[in-house]
Specification:
Blueprint (H helix, E strand, L loop, with lengths): L1 E5 L3 H10 L4 E6 L2 H10 L3 E4 L5 H6 L7 E4 L4 H14 L3 E6 L2 H8 L9 E4 H13 L4 E7 L4 E7 L11 H4 L5 E8 L2 E4 L11 E6 L1 H11 L10 E4 L3 H12 L5 E4 L2 H10 L4 E4 L5 H6 L7 E4 L4 H14 L3 E5 L6 H6 L4 E3 L1 H10 L7 E7 L4 E7 L9 E2 H5 L6 E8 L2 E3 L6 E2 L4 E7 L3 H7 L1
Parallel strand pairs: 1-2, 1-4, 2-3, 4-5, 5-6, 12-13, 12-15, 13-14, 15-16, 16-17
Antiparallel strand pairs: 7-8, 8-11, 9-10, 9-11, 18-19, 19-24, 20-23, 21-22, 21-24
Length: 444
């Protein structure tokens, strides 16, 4: 498939890197240095030019493209790119935007602007933060099969009941599959005799109740749940996070230093208490009992500020801290110094867009540990290597670094075992090492 990616920022680069091995990828960007760097670092055709101009799109052979992804840093530019692409091709167009209002306008008149699908970065980030908040100690959370299946990643502490146990010994949860373990730079597919060590990040897939039970029992939760939420920064992401919590029945508090912005969001967020103050003022945080919060979300405009306020919150005794980071290279630093979860909006966006580049029967994609592994939801077709076969037999024809985590059959959850027969029409949730991903996709 020919894919044209317009905009070679973090989102565009991540998408191009993910697709270069399996698709004919063209990347368009205005910056000459970026284009030159891409030419040597990725197996893509990099073109210098303005993606809103038909001449540039023709140079990218837009007429042969099946997918056009507009992911520059400007919302209106991305919409224009999609509209221009439609004048010269029948490609499926995706526009990345930051403003939720633009997404809502498009949703109210789908097909408008020449955009077939719109991805809102800030909304995706807010939704990811809310999902993570619902599970004690979770590093990553996603839902599959219409909410029937949950995937979650947890870091195992030295005092966790499953530390130093084998997967077979730890496997005492109904409807739960141990999928993979990240240990430093190593990715380990979970087998019965695999030992779970302190510091490991373990990925489990199963029913929401089983995953919640696992989180509560073995992942060393610091609190009993998330009731008191404090959001620091009324940035667009901070605003969307507050709105997401409001929509689920919470009454969060928000701290914003700018008086005009504080007044604006206070008028819009009816269930959120907005406090106008500097969130780096430790005395103010103590007076407002921020240390008693179950969750603090740092959503200021700046990674360094988010790191500082997260560390202040930790020092005050906050149970969990989530920080929004723009520079992906900071993720490991944030988590090393004690921030519980660092979320990069561009990674969330790339994950959503990549789903459209997979096989037609791929329903959902979740990337783990900066795309070292993926969890896929696929619909099994008649000609799939999985169809009509027991799991033990079928997976023998797949690369070793694959785990079938859950099966949705007619709206019911089937916990996979070696003798489980997979039927055409089943929705199967699979954990896959990124190194064998393309081989697996071709087989299933």
């Amino acid at each position: 498939m020919r894919v044209v990616v317009v905009g070679a920022g973090e989102v565009g680069r991540s998408i191009a890197a993910n697709l270069e091995g399996s698709h004919d990828v063209v990347v368009v960007d205005r910056d000459a240095e970026t284009v030159e760097e891409l030419t040597y670092s990725l197996d893509v055709l990099a073109i210098e030019g303005d993606g809103t101009e038909l001449e540039t799109l023709r140079e990218a052979r837009i007429e042969d493209a099946e997918l056009v992804i507009a992911c520059t840093d400007d919302d209106e530019t991305n919409v224009v790119i999609c509209g221009a692409a439609k004048t010269g091709s029948e490609a499926f167009t995706i526009a990345r935007v930051r403003r939720r209002t633009l997404l809502e306008t498009w949703e109210g008149s789908q097909g408008a602007f020449g955009v077939d699908f719109m991805v809102c970065t800030d909304l995706l980030t807010a939704q990811a933060i809310f999902r993570i908040s619902g599970l004690p100690a979770a590093q990553d959370v996603d839902m599959f099969a219409g909410g029937l299946v949950r995937m979650a990643e947890f870091e195992i502490g030295p005092d966790s009941p499953i530390a130093d146990q084998t997967v077979r010994e730890a496997d005492r949860y109904d409807s739960l599959t141990f999928a993979g373990i990240f240990r430093g730079e190593e990715m380990i597919v979970a087998r019965g005799d695999t030992t779970i060590s302190p510091g490991d990040r373990i990925v489990v897939i199963g029913s929401p109740s089983s995953v919640s039970g696992f989180a509560t029992d073995v992942a060393e939760p610091k609190g009993e749940g998330t009731d008191e939420v404090v959001i620091i920064g009324a940035s667009e992401i901070g605003y969307q996070v507050a709105r997401e919590f409001e929509e689920h029945g919470y009454r969060p508090r928000m701290i914003e230093q700018d008086p005009d912005r504080a007044r604006e969001v206070a008028e819009s967020l009816r269930k959120t208490m907005v406090m106008e103050n500097d969130a780096t003022d430790a005395g103010f945080l103590e007076r407002e009992h921020v240390g008693e919060a179950d969750l603090v979300v740092a959503a200021l405009d700046g990674d360094e500020k988010n790191l500082l306020v997260s560390l202040l919150a930790r020092r005050l005794g906050v149970d969990r801290t989530v920080a929004v980071i723009e520079n992906l290279e900071y993720a490991e630093l944030f988590e090393t110094v004690g921030i519980d979860v660092a979320i990069n909006p561009r990674e969330e966006t790339a994950e959503e867009i990549v789903r459209f580049t997979r096989a037609d029967h791929t329903e959902k994609v979740a990337m783990l540990e900066h795309d070292r592994a993926e969890v896929l939801e696929i619909e099994v077709t008649d000609n799939s290597v999985l169809a009509g076969r027991e799991i033990a037999e079928a997976t023998a024809d797949l690369p070793e670094r694959v785990v079938i985590g859950a099966i949705s059959r007619g709206g019911d959850l089937v916990t996979p075992r070696g003798t489980t027969v997979i039927e055409p029409g089943d929705h199967v949730v699979i954990f896959v090492d990124a190194g064998v991903l393309e081989e697996v996709i071709e087989s299933i």
